[in-house]
Amino acid sequence: MYQGKSLNRIICIALLVLCVLGSVAYVGPSPQANAEAAAGKGPSSADEVKAFADAFFNRAEIRSKLAGAAFVVVSDNKVLLNQGYGYANLESKQPIEPDKTLFRVASVTKVFTATTVMQLAEQGRINLEDNVDKYIGGMKIPNHTDSPLKVKHLLTHTTGFDFTDNLKPNSTDLDTVTSLESFIQERLPTVVRKPGQAYRYDNFASDLQGYLVQSVVGQPFEQVVREHIFQPLHMNNSYLGLNSKLAQRLATGYNSKNQPIQPYTDTPTISPSGGLISTSTDISKFMLAQLNGGKLGEAAILKPETVSEMQKVHVGILPELPNMGYGFEMFYHSLYNGQKVVEKSGDHSGYHSYMWLLPDRKVGGFIVTNSDSIDVRTELFKEFMDHYYPADQKPRPAITLSAKDLAKFEGSYRYLRIPMQVFDVKLEDEHLSISTPVGVKKLKPVGDLLFEDEDGRMAAFKADEKGVISHLYYMIPDAWSERVEDQPPYSDVPVNHPYAGYINDLRKLNAFPVNTSSAFAPEKTMTRGEFSADLVGLIGIQPTQSPVQFKDTVGHRFAAQIQTLVEYGAVNGYAKDKFEPDRPITREEAAVLLWRISQQFANTDVSAKLSGITDLWAKPAVEFVIGSGLYGPEVRTNQDGLANYHSRSPMLRQEAAALLTKAARFILTQQAKGKV
């Protein structure tokens, strides 16, 4: 059996900022505000910190949903709080023991991985300015740019890779092993953007860091971490890789309905990007070392100057909106209250973690939970900062820009991590408007390349070396959005074409990668292979390199995309060992493919009244499509409210454009409104 590494989770995490920060009236302190940091003294009393934490976790709305959590606060080289709340196992009412209860800390692992890279840099065994290829055992990373991919780009998530997320399902067979080396070889992405040019959260970059360390040291990555981090810091209950013995000590993970999730492995089994299993006690030791120049007691894992380099801002679209240090990220600027904060969060099925450090204050916090039913991390951090470091934040005054100056920002910006999200920026009545998953927002200029919407969210732009606006950073914290190049209109899709809007929108999403001609052929039928490829392109899944299941797809140009959908449970064959990739896809077949893949990240339990003939196996999918409004003008509803989807008719390319474009909007809107 497999535990899916859910697409839902990546989209939901990316859009979390919509719910968490939607009402914040100010985002990002000015440089002056940093110099005039809040006068709060921070946590100093263990009793007071416990009272703060108890009050938070004892709220009825949290206690009723949260399975369990461990919360740590450190200050001035001391642990002020290390407390468990709720249960490690709901069924047995097993309490959380901070010294013993194991949690998956997910992507917090990345800071540990970055630490091993920095240890090698300290020792002179690697140079952060060197090409990555120099250190990965003869492997060569495909690079379609004229710029080298450097080690520092892995640390700052600015690799320019075409694919950065590993969505391969994880196995619930704890004896399953996928080596780090084979994983890197099989999933090796291609550099398609100039390294260092743009920020995009990058799981593969962290896995590649681990493989680099393993190759340079000549020891398994987990051994390096154990000998050079765990043992010096006496992190005696920290591990990479889950086995049946450790699973007995692991807090049970629960889904959004607080139903237990079967323990699962990571892919790769030893995952530098998210495989750390630890206790809150052990994490507190690492935090103390990071806040004390790399030392804990007499043990040192890094030099003070190296720690400072890790915690320094290396990437930010503007000074007001930093993004990355080395391994650390900066997401929730609006909550920093003028303080310097570095952070790292992590998410796995059933487990969610968040570590924040205030290096100048020698203060840090860490929370980990074992349930998908409620996410308390950013709310806890917000209350922590407001309680201990309150700040009177003043809105930035608007500045005046002419219509000519504003016009240079117009365009479509495609979110680098999930291509189905596109922000359209338009000039309207001497102001900018921007389309979002929660509606159209108005942007007012408040600084050079910096805007603010009516909800207080900042929108920052970046210009290239020629002064042309190239990127946008807005609303979603874990990646920039790149400007979509203007392209000439399709010769056979006039402006007044009934499907012109859908076709042009789909072009922005880059979901028709196979169509490079000047004509779109809107009334041409779409094949099963073409639709599979376009669906994979829309979602942004890296096509698999696994052997194909269907014999008639061997050597086919869309074989990898079809097999990818097989691995995600979206595709069944037309007959035994056959898929018929070149046969026109029917409208109900297309609906089923979309419905199955959508179940991973959207509520597909939608009903509708149908007329015409729809095969029984396709009825739930067609009802989902009709009930969610995922169709173009070819579908009409009669006076009785019945819709004829023309289920058995071949799907035309123009109809597929309407279906896929509307599906992307539906998924993003659901996520943004928290309906999943």
UniProtKB/TrEMBL annotation:
<feature type="domain" description="SLH">
    <location>
        <begin position="486"/>
        <end position="544"/>
    </location>
</feature>
<dbReference type="InterPro" id="IPR050491">
    <property type="entry name" value="AmpC-like"/>
</dbReference>
<dbReference type="InterPro" id="IPR001119">
    <property type="entry name" value="SLH_dom"/>
</dbReference>
<feature type="domain" description="SLH">
    <location>
        <begin position="545"/>
        <end position="608"/>
    </location>
</feature>
<dbReference type="InterPro" id="IPR012338">
    <property type="entry name" value="Beta-lactam/transpept-like"/>
</dbReference>
<dbReference type="Pfam" id="PF00395">
    <property type="entry name" value="SLH"/>
</dbReference>
<protein>
    <recommendedName>
        <fullName>SLH domain-containing protein</fullName>
    </recommendedName>
</protein>
<dbReference type="InterPro" id="IPR001466">
    <property type="entry name" value="Beta-lactam-related"/>
</dbReference>
<dbReference type="Pfam" id="PF00144">
    <property type="entry name" value="Beta-lactamase"/>
</dbReference>
